[in-house]
Amino acid sequence: MSDLEEFHKSFIADIQGDADALGTYAQEAFFERIGDILTEAGEVEQADYAHYRGIGKRGVQLQVTGSGGDPDESDGVLALILCDFQITPELRTTRGADLKAQFGKLLDFLRHAISEKFRNAIEEVSLGAGLADMIATRWEKIVKIKLIYVTNSDNRARVDAMPAGEIDSKALTYNVWDLKRLRGFVEQGKARADMTIRFSEQFGCGVPVLKASGTDATLESYIAVIPGRQLADIYDVWGARLLESNVRSFLQGKGGVNRGIRKTILEEPHMFLSYNNGLAATAEEVEVEQTDQGLILKSAANLQIVNGGQTTASLHAASRLPNANMDDIFVQMKLSIVPSVLSENVVPRISEYANSQNKVNAADFFANHPFHIRIEELSRKLLAPSGEQGYRETKWFYERARGQYADARSKMTVTERSKWDAEFPRSQFFTKTDLAKFENTWGGQPHIVSQGAQKNFGAFARSIEKVWGRSGDRIDDAWFRQLIAKAIIYRKLEKLVSGAQWYEGGYRANIVTYAIAKVAADVKERDKAIDLARIWRAQDLPAGLEEALLIAAAEAQNTITTPPAGVRNLSEWAKKQACWEQFRKHKLAYPEDLEDLLVDPEEVRDAVQDERNDRKLSEDVADQVRVLELGAVFWAEAQAWGRKRRLLSPTEFSILGICAKIPAKLPTERQTTMAISVLDRLEREGFRSSAAAE
Questions:
Q1: How many CA atoms, within 13 angstroms, populate the side-chain half-sphere of residue 586?
Q2: What pTM does this model have?
Q3: How high does pLDDT run on average in the chain?
Q4: By C-alpha distance, which of 47, 31, 18 is closest to 455?
């Protein structure tokens, strides 16, 4: 069995597992999974489920599964998504003729959507009606249309960002995500195996470059100056997929054209190179050619802009302005060549350092930020109780970087994999975007959560320092247990809503986040808190809380599906703060036994603080023992090593000096803590003691 065939079977099993967990159909579970993938990969900014299937004029088949959201919020780009998920024992193959038929269904739906007669004929509350209405409303502002076909078959035709002509003077492109591409992203976070920027062939000319690395350099580097129009044209084809994923998350929450960049483009285009900091980018490999005019960059594979995303997006937006003089604009670019085997660790680090001067520190949302590392460590360490339904303790797996879960399983034998699955059940797997969804829902921002995984993550990222605090002490065992309790509530309600008699289908993600936020807000108004510790211990919800959540969920559905007059796109209505404010003010009658499930917030804080104090005492004792056991020779060596490399502040140097005089001098409790902290940093920088080795 080939690797792809094995992935085919495991992927189907995962989707079926998701469907069972959500209490929904496999097709909808597939869309939810690929929606996360498409947004994280930058193919779309969000993924809204809007299934429609019917017969149009002259008997043509119309079909669509969802969209990339409101074109007004994605630079005038309309994305329509069609999913093809089939449960088959053998891996299917898709060829060019199959793709033509599938894209035809999307195209025909698009053409019908702008027909008032068609829109009037669709049931008003259907998902398809909302999507068709949005298309018609935004039609004049739409400048580009992306048709995206996602299938769990093996596609043999090459179609990615392929131009497909125009419709009503709007550029049309075809995009295919088949099983090979899905596998690459799920297992390694790579969705761009075929994303090669061919400067010479596709975008007018090659880019003049200077080599900026020596023969002994770890990474090959170049300095380039790229025409602004060429950069805008490249972004027009590839869009946000050009931007490194963390930068993309950050920018999605900002939107719009930077006013300073716009002013320079319109008033002083010849000064753009002087005023702008330029781009920092990476690529997996490049093709360069030595010519009479110097070195020319002909193509770059998997080009990623890690700094300068707003410059690129703003140039693209400004290029559409009637009085923009793009011919005088040039942009400096530093390009580092990072092989695929190094990309997972090196690209985020380049991105972090390149963005370190931003007003909102870019490191706040990177996978290697201490916050995410701490959550990962806690998820590998803390055992969750077996609960009433389980038979053994398990763990919740936090995937800090895309592909960690699949990569860990792929290296195991069948027996090891069976043990792993028992320890880390697939149903207890969650990602950074899941975490942001749980926290922002609980924080009373369901309208932000409804804007999609990446935008919501960007919003959470900008608050991460408040969560992390000065030292990260708050992110401990107690915080993690509360996080998992929130995850249990979220996932249980997803399933409860799917099985509720009143559920009309669609908008489940919006209903769930609104309902939880409402119950949490109402409980807070009573000066009470939901007993998250109880949920953690049971790994399930008490019946009274389930009933309360379903009451809120039914009312949330009513609020979302009955918007103010003139609003037909219900997904967009759920993204508005006005929707949340309207729902938040509703008075709901909860079951009487809900009160028995609530606790005093002050008691919760006291219990958490007592636990933290006990843990701090244990850690302090452990630090003191370790400092004494390492001995004077070890600390003297660490002090000399750190001073030689200028890694120590005067205070740190002095404290290591005290440790180097043990037992004649003994460090205080505070000095002991600082000595261990300094040692951890030195060891990350490469310090290894010969004394310890002996």
A1: 23
A2: 0.71
A3: 85
A4: 47
